[in-house]
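Why do we bother with a discrete structure alphabet at all? Because it lets us treat a fold like text: something you can write down, compare, and reason about line by line. To make this less abstract, here is a complete entry for PTS system, sorbose-specific IIB component. Read it the way you would read a sentence in a foreign language you are learning: slowly, and without expecting to understand everything at once.
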Amino acid sequence: MITIARIDERLIHGQVAYAWTVAYKSEAIMVIDNEIAKDKFQISLLQMACPAGVKCFICDEDKAVELLKKYEKRKIFVVVKHPGTLLSICKKGCGLEAVNVGGLYFKEGRRQISKTVYVDPEMEEIFRELDSLGVRLENRTTPTDPEEDLMKLL
């Protein structure tokens, strides 16, 4: 079971590893990224950032779908860099109830919609498609922040 799916370009860092994992009582953190899943150095860095006692999966989209189905009774916190990753796993059969959008940072071609979220036209289109699939999209930087409806910010 996915306890929370979060979009955060920093992936596993202090806030993700401790605040979000604890708030959502997650047994594992799953980083889904097709490129990072091929990079042994990046994998080792992410595994070191994962808190003791919390299982860490770093995998590509196909493996993520397989593992999420296999461990559907486990409490797994999913974190990705880009909304396209979540749309892809939805289309491959992993249902998502909600997505927290918390860390998409400034880059050329992106516009700011909240304190920590900058989006480009491609991301906006992906968010609209996720919304049309019934996925609730919310913006929060920390688990204690009030939820904001991401679609109202676009």
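What the structure line is telling us, in plain words: The chain has a mean pLDDT of 96. The longest strand covers residues 2-8.
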